[in-house]
Amino acid sequence: MTKKYRPRTDLVHGGTLRSQYGETSEALFLTSGYVYETMEAAVKRFTNEEPGFIYSRFANPTIRMFEQRMALLEGAEDARATATGMAAVTSAMLCCLRAGDHVLSSRALFGSCRFIVEDLLPRYGITSTLVDGRDLDAWRKAIQPNTKIVFLESPSNPSLEIIDLRAVAEIAHSVGALLMVDNVFATPILQRPLELGADIVVYSATKHIDGQGRCLGGVVLSSKKWIDENLHNFMRQTGPSISPFNAWVMLKSLETLDLRVREHARNGEAVAHFLEAHPKIERVLHPALKSHPQHELAMSQMEMGGNVVCFDVVGGQAGAFRFANALEVIKISNNLGDTKSLITHPATTTHQRLTPEQRVTVGISDGMVRLSVGLEDIQDIIEDLDAALRHA
């Protein structure tokens, strides 16, 4: 395909490599190694004199199709797929950081991402600073001459904080740092960080990209130069690779990603409006709500508000537990982006490592629940919520 097509077409056809059999569906190359016609051919393959695959730890036809399709969707020059979303975050950082470097990050992060920034990197002599991502002055004051990576989530997990990507990109670039955005909640359908100034985008493909709770995976997207000079060899030598089978599942899921994400978002907004008017709910957070503190910024960066709704149930943790335990259609799970509606209690699951004081600073109360709205009939979801709230 040489013509530039629109995203929905790229999601079906982008990056396809066909074998000599002319298969319609992308082929699953479930192989670890590759055969060479001669020893001389192997030498040329290893020295990059001849194109081709060597070992599936660092390249595989099925994985490459997934990477190229993601790059087309994101508007990136290149991509590398990883075994999990956290492998994507960790690899993207460690591949280009050295002892003495500094990482500046928003404080509102997924628990494992915060562990990487706050606990893991300092073990290797890489210092880190966490700031309130909504406060541009905080970013300006905390940036340092040795800052190499500026990292954030927008919307954040779980409190749905929105960060001004253009402004933070400008702050990062003022000292030569790279802006790395975890775009999981928005997905590449609803927000394009590279167009807003980001240099690196990471995903947990386990979420909306798979979308059906089947496979783990992650993706790192950036310029070809950055990937060639930093990430490619790091992954080749350390091996955080996605399996060809998981990449194939992701490929098939991408065909319906646009359709699913937009329907997810429509359901999410309907749920948010319902909850906002419910007497058993103390607070509702969703970017599409006008009551969201950064609604205007969110809608300037995102096409829609997404499918994650966070809300505080009357009665604190006990009320939240009674409510969640009474749900029937909506299932209790710490995953998100699934066709099934899933709910979790961040304070005791995804963010249980944080101290009570730290949870307060990122907006996580004892009564907060995070709901990933699925693709069930919206009336069934709302009726399930309404019935369960009577137990709160």
* Biggest sheet, spatial arrangement of strands: 1-7-6-5-4-2-3
Mean pLDDT across residues: 96
- Beta-strand content: 5-15%
Shape-level CATH architecture of the largest domain: 3-Layer(aba) Sandwich
User: Count of DSSP helices?
Assistant: 15
**CATH superfamily label of the largest domain:** Type I PLP-dependent aspartate aminotransferase-like (Major domain)
User: CA-to-CA gap between the ends?
Assistant: 55 Å
Count of individual domains: 2
Summarize the main sheet: 7 strands, mixed
Protein model, in words:
It contains 15 helices and 12 strands. It has 392 residues and is α/β, with parallel strands linked by helices. It folds into 2 domains: 7-254, Type I PLP-dependent aspartate aminotransferase-like (Major domain) (Aspartate Aminotransferase, domain 2, 3-Layer(aba) Sandwich); 257-389, Aspartate Aminotransferase, domain 1. The strands form 2 sheets. The protein has a 7-stranded mixed β-sheet with strand order 1-7-6-5-4-2-3, sandwiched between helices. Strands 8-9-12-11-10 form a 5-stranded mixed β-sheet. The model has no long low-confidence stretch (mean pLDDT 96).
